[in-house]
C-alpha cells in the first residue's frame, strides 16, 4: 500500500516549508491561497480553487519564504533558539499551504494541466529547497545555537528541535564545498523531475494504456455476477456497450485473476499489470530508473555515505543496511518453504482437475481461491455481502470510539476536490473539535493506484493556539454497481483499517514544533496503520460492523470461524512477494558509484535469482512500476512495512494479553506515547514507554505462520 502521511513528492520538496505568516506581497485577491480560508473548519476551498491559482501561489510562497530566511540571516542579534531555530521552524506558511493542496489533488484527481504544473514547480521547489539547505549564513546561525544547546536553558523538546534541524542541514549538504553543492543541486533537480516522469508514466500505463475487452460472454465463465456487472458498467463508460471491460485497477483485476476460468485471459491481464512501464513505449520507465539509481548513488557519495541505502537507513530504527539485510533474509528463509508448500497444494488441485500444466505466476490467484475453498470452506464472495463500505467505515469509527472515546460525524457543507469524497468531523469524548477527515474511496482515471493517507493541514501550533488537522484517506476500492452498494473484499477491508490508523496518527499528533511533531523514523511510520488491521478481524469487532447489506444480519459465527481459521491462508505468497520487493529495493540502493545498472530487467532477474525466488512468484512490485521507491518516498525503505509489523504484532499482543482488546489504559498509553507524542524522542524510546520493553519478533512469526 502506498502511504503518505509524509506525502510522497511533497515531503521531499517541501521539507523546509512550515507554518509562519510571511511578508505580504502584491497578490491576486481572487487567488484563494492568498487569504485565510473562510470555509468551515478552515478546510481548503476546493470549490474556489482553479488550476490557474497554483503556480502563482507557489511563486509567491517561495518569495515569502525567501524573505523570512533573509530576515533570520540578516539579523544583527546573536543567534538564539527563538530568533533562529524557532523562526526557521515556523517559516514558509504559504508554501506549505499551497503545496499540501496541490500535491494531494495531483495524486488523487489529476489532469493534464496539473501534471504540467508539477513539471514546472518541481525544479523551482528543488532549487528553493537547496537554496535554504545550502545557505551558509543560515546554517552558521543554526550551528551557533546547536553548539550552545546544552548551556542555553532549553527544555528537552527545544534541544531535540535544534538537533533535528542541524542534522537536516548536514544531510542536505550544508558542509559541502561550493563545487560539491553545485553538483548536489543539479542531482536534486534531476531526481525531482525523474520522479515526476516515473509517476506520470505509471499513471498512463495503469489507467490509459491497457484494457481487457471481452466480447464473448463465455469468457466470463467463473466470474461472480457483481464482477461481471462492474465490467459492463466500465465498458459502457468507455463507449463499449454490450461488452465487458477489465482494467489494471485492483478492484477490476484481482477478481478476474481469482475467478476467471479462461487461463489465457488471466495471463493477459496479469502480464499487462506486471509489464507496466516496461513496454518500450513513450511511458517506459527503464531509463528513468537507471538514471535515478545512478544519481542517488552519486548523491550519497557526495554526502559521505557508501551508498544511498546507507544514507537513508542511517536515520531509521534499523540504523544499518546490514541490519536490514539480516532481518529480510531471516524472514525470507522462513517464508519460502511455506510458499513452496502452498504451491504444491495448488498444483495437486490443478492435477486432480486434469489441468495438464505446471502452474505459472498468473495461476496463483485462481488456484489459491480453490485452495481457500478446499481447506477452509471459505469463498470470499460469501463474505462480501457482510462488508459493505458503509458498514466497514462505521466499524472502524466504532473501534476508535471504544479505544479513544472519539466520535465521527458526517458533514455535508464542506467543499471537496471530487464529488464523491465524504467528509467527517472528528471530536474528542468531551465534544471538543479534534479534526476533519476526508474519505475518497473509488478508482478513477485521474487517480494514482493503491491507497494512502495524507493531510491538507497538519496538527501544529500557531500564535500560541493548536491548529487542528485536516486528514485525507484515498483508496481504490470496488465501487457500487446498480442497486448494489460497494462491497469490499477482505483485503480492501484491512486496507481501510490500515489507512485509518495513519489518519489517527495525524489526528492525535501533538507538539509545538513542525520538525518534530509526529515526525518519526520511516521504519516506525507504519506502526500506527498496521496495528489497526488487527482489530478488523477480531470476532468481537466483526460482530460490531460485519452486517449483511440487505438483511442487516450480523455475520454468523460460522463465517467468523472461517475467517479466523483462514488467517494463515496464502501467507507464504504474501510474505515472499513482499520480501522479494524489499530485497530488490535494497539491492538497487546498495550500489555504490558508479551505479551503472544497465539493463534493469536483467538486474531485477539477477537479484531475484540470487535469493532463489521461485518462478511462480514475482516480487510484489517489479522495477518499472515500483512507485514506492521511485515516486513515493520509500527508496531504500520498502522494508519498513515488515519492520513495523514486528512492532504492531507485539503491540496488539500486549492488548490481547491484557484480556481486553479495548483496554482503556493501554489505549491511552498507546495514543500518548506512540501516536500523540511519538516525535518527542526516538522511535524505540517512545515504543518502550508504551510497551515497557523492546518488541519481540515472536508474535509476528506466529501471526504469519512462519514459526
Q: What does this protein look like?
A:
The chain is mainly α and 707 residues long. The chain has four domains: 8-133 and 135-171, Neurolysin, domain 3, CATH 1.10.1370; 211-272, no CATH class; 321-381 and 569-703, Neurolysin, domain 3; 384-564, Neurolysin, domain 3. Helix content is 54%, strand content 6%. The protein has 28 helices and nine strands. The strands form three sheets. It has a five-stranded mixed sheet with strand order 3-4-5-9-6. Strands 1-2 form a two-stranded antiparallel sheet. The chain has a two-stranded antiparallel ribbon with strand order 7-8. A hairpin with a 2-residue loop joins β7 (460-462) and β8. α5 (112-133) packs antiparallel against α8, α8 (178-207) runs antiparallel to α12 (286-302) and α18 crosses α26. The radius of gyration is 25 Å and the shape is globular. 50% of the residues are buried. The model is unreliable at 1-25 (pLDDT under 50).
Amino acid at each position: 500500500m502506498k502511504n503518505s502521511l509524509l506525502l510522497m513528492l511533497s515531503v521531499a520538496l517541501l521539507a523546509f516549508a512550515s507554518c509562519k505568516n510571511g511578508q505580504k506581497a502584491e497578490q491576486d485577491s481572487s487567488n484563494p491561497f492568498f487569504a485565510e480560508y473562510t470555509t468551515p473548519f478552515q478546510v481548503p476551498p476546493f470549490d474556489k480553487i482553479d488550476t490557474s491559482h497554483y503556480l502563482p501561489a507557489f511563486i509567491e510562497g517561495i518569495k515569502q519564504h525567501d524573505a523570512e530566511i533573509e530576515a533570520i540571516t540578516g539579523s544583527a542579534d546573536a543567534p538564539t533558539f527563538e530568533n533562529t531555530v524557532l523562526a526557521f521552524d515556523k517559516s514558509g506558511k504559504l508554501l506549505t499551504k499551497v503545496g499540501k493542496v496541490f500535491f494531494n489533488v495531483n495524486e488523487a484527481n489529476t489532469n493534464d494541466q496539473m501534471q504540467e504544473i508539477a513539471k514546472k514547480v518541481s525544479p523551482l521547489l528543488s532549487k528553493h529547497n537547496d537554496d535554504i539547505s545550502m545557505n551558509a549564513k543560515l546554517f552558521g546561525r543554526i550551528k551557533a545555537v546547536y553548539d550552545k544547546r546544552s548551556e542555553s536553558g532549553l527544555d528537552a523538546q527545544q534541544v531535540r528541535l535544534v538537533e533535528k534541524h542541524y542534522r537536516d542541514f548536514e544531510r542536505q549538504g550544508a558542509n559541502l564545498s561550493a563545487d560539491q553543492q553545485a553538483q548536489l543541486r543539479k542531482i536534486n533537480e534531476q531526481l525531482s523531475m525523474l520522479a515526476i516522469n516515473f509517476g506520470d508514466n505509471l499513471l498512463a500505463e495503469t489507467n490509459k494504456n491497457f484494457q481487457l475487452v471481452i466480447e464473448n460472454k463465455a469468457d466470463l465463465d467463473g466470474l461472480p455476477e457483481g464482477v461481471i456487472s462492474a465490467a459492463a458498467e466500465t465498458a459502457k463508460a468507455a463507449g463499449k456497450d454490450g461488452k465487458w471491460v477489465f482494467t489494471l485497477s485492483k478492484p477490476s483485476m484481482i477478481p478476474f485473476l481469482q475467478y476467471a476460468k479462461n487461463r489465457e485471459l488471466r495471463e493477459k491481464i496479469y502480464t499487462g499489470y506486471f509489464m507496466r512501464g516496461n513496454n518500450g513505449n513513450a511511458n517506459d520507465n527503464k531509463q528513468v530508473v537507471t538514471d535515478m539509481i545512478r544519481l542517488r548513488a552519486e548523491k550519497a557519495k557526495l554526502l559521505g555515505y557508501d551508498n544511498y541505502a546507507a544514507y537513508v537507513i542511517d536515520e531509521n530504527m534499523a540504523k544499518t543496511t546490514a541490519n536490514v539485510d539480516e532481518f529480510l533474509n531471516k524472514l525470507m528463509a522462513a517464508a519460502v518453504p511455506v510458499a513452496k508448500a502452498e504451491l504444491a497444494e495448488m498444483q495437486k488441485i490443478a492435477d486432480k482437475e486434469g489441468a495438464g500444466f505446471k502452474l505459472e505466476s498468473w495461476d496463483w490467484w485462481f488456484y489459491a481461491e480453490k485452495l481457500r475453498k478446499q481447506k477452509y470452506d471459505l469463498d470470499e464472495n460469501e463474505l462480501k455481502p457482510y462488508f459493505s463500505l458503509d458498514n466497514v467505515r462505521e466499524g472502524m469509527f466504532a473501534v476508535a470510539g471504544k479505544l479513544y472515546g472519539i466520535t465521527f460525524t458526517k458533514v455535508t457543507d464542506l467543499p471537496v476536490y471530487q464529488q464523491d469524497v465524504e467528509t467527517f468531523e472528528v471530536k474528542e469524548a468531551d465534544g471538543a473539535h479534534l479534526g476533519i477527515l476526508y474519505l475518497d474511496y473509488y478508482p478513477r482515471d485521474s487517480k494514482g493506484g493503491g491507497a494512502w493517507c495524507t493531510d491538507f493541514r497538519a496538527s501544529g501550533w500557531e500564535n500560541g493556539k493548536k491548529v487542528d488537522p485536516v486528514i485525507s484517506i484515498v483508496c481504490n476500492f470496488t465501487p457500487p454497481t446498480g442497486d448494489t452498494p460497494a462491497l469490499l473484499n477482505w483485503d480492501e477491508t484491512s486496507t481501510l483499517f490500515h489507512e485509518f490508523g495513519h489518519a489517527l496518527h495525524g489526528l492525535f499528533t501533538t507538539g509545538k514544533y513542525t520538525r518534530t511533531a509526529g515526525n518519526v523514523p520511516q521504519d516506525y511510520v507504519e506502526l500506527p496503520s498496521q496495528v489497526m488491521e488487527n482489530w478488523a478481524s477480531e470476532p468481537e469487532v466483526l460482530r460490531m460492523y460485519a452486517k449483511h447489506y440487505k438483511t442487516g444480519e450480523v455475520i454468523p459465527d460460522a463465517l467468523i470461524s472461517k475467517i479466523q481459521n483462514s488467517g494463515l491462508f496464502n501467507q507464504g505468497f504474501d510474505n515472499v512477494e513482499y520480501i522479494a520487493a524489499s530485497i530488490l529495493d535494497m539491492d538497487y540502493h546498495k550500489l555504490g558509484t558508479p551505479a551503472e545498472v544497465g539493463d534493469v530487467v536483467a538486474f531485477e532477474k539477477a537479484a531475484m535469482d540470487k535469493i532463489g525466488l521461485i518462478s511462480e512468484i514475482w516480487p510484489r512490485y517489479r522495477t518499472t512500476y515500483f512507485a514506492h521507491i521511485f515516486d513515493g518516498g520509500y527508496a531504500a525503505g520498502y522494508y519498513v512495512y515488515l519492520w513495523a509489523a514486528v512492532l504492531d504484532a507485539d503491540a496488539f499482543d500486549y492488548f490481547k494479553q491484557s484480556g481486553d482488546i479495548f483496554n482503556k489504559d493501554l489505549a491511552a498509553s498507546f495514543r500518548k506515547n506512540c501516536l500523540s507524542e511519538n516525535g518527542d524522542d526516538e522511535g524505540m524510546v517512545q515504543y518502550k514507554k508504551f510497551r515497557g520493553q523492546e518488541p519481540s519478533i515472536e508474535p509476528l512469526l506466529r501471526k504469519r505462520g512462519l514459526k
